[in-house]
Amino acid sequence: xxxxxxxxxxxxxxxxxxxxxxxxxxxxxxxxxxxxxxxxxxxxxxxxxxxxxxxxxxxxxxxxxxxxxxxxxxxxxxxxxxxxxxxxxxxxxxxxxxxxxxxxxxxxxxxxxxxxxxxxxxxxxxxxxxxxxxxxxxxxxxxxxxxxxxxxxxxxxxxxxxxxxxxxxxxxxxxxxxxxxxxxxxxxxxxxxxxxxxxxxxxxxxxxxxxxxxxxxxxxxxxxxxxxxxxxxxxxxxxxxxxxxxxxxxxxxxxxxxxxxxxxxxxxxxxxxxxxxxxxx
Length: 281
Ligand code: 13P
Hints:
By secondary structure, this protein is of the alpha/beta class. The chain has one domain (6-278): TIM Barrel, CATH 3.20.20.70. It is 51% helix and 17% strand. The chain has eleven helices and eleven strands. The protein has an eight-stranded parallel β-barrel with strand order 1-2-3-4-5-8-10-11, surrounded by ten helices. The structure holds 1,3-dihydroxyacetonephosphate (13P). 1,3-dihydroxyacetonephosphate is lined by residues 23, 81-82, 179-180, 207-210, 229-233.
């Protein structure tokens, strides 16, 4: 069933687990995430960035995700990841996405507030929840390099004011993760996260989770992270599967054959993360 992220994240917050949000960039990745969600009985968020939407159109991705949701015995959310403008957010909303992120984190504080508020106004009119972002998650995110920040962490007091004034439903915060492939082992600033959690009562979102050690993810969940995003590692897994097939069958030319290898690798990865995010003993 295709659902909004609102109730899923509220339940995750209440019961100290996290919903996995996986970036899907083709039909095979949608299938892989669906199989993993069914096997682990996990509610799941499938998401696309504006860069992905540019590749094939929001309608194509939405149709794929909706088809997966109709087959699934678990709730499935279709989420816009890192919406980069009011127009993109509204496009996703009209396409049928059931959860929208507007990312004004690169803007000055007041401008981020007014952009986020404008998206909240449209989306809430259709009962669609909005994720916003405050602070600088490092690394390359979609097509943008986001590394040149000053204070890399979200300011807890600003976060509380931001949530109050925008009415957003969940908040992506910068606590030491980065998008893309890490050069060293990432170190999450749990002190900052604890302070944010004390002041902000809505679900928090962890971005840039590919490559973050599982123990650190678990600690984040215990401190109130409710949505955990994985993208880069799915790309790596898919491509690894395709390469493996090609290594064994260099003359292969049937996309279904190498696609199946890609599906299997992504499924294996997502399965393991879904078990982690359940946060059971
Ligand atoms: P990674 O590519 O580091 O997994 O980040 C994913 C993400 O945060 C998508 O918004």
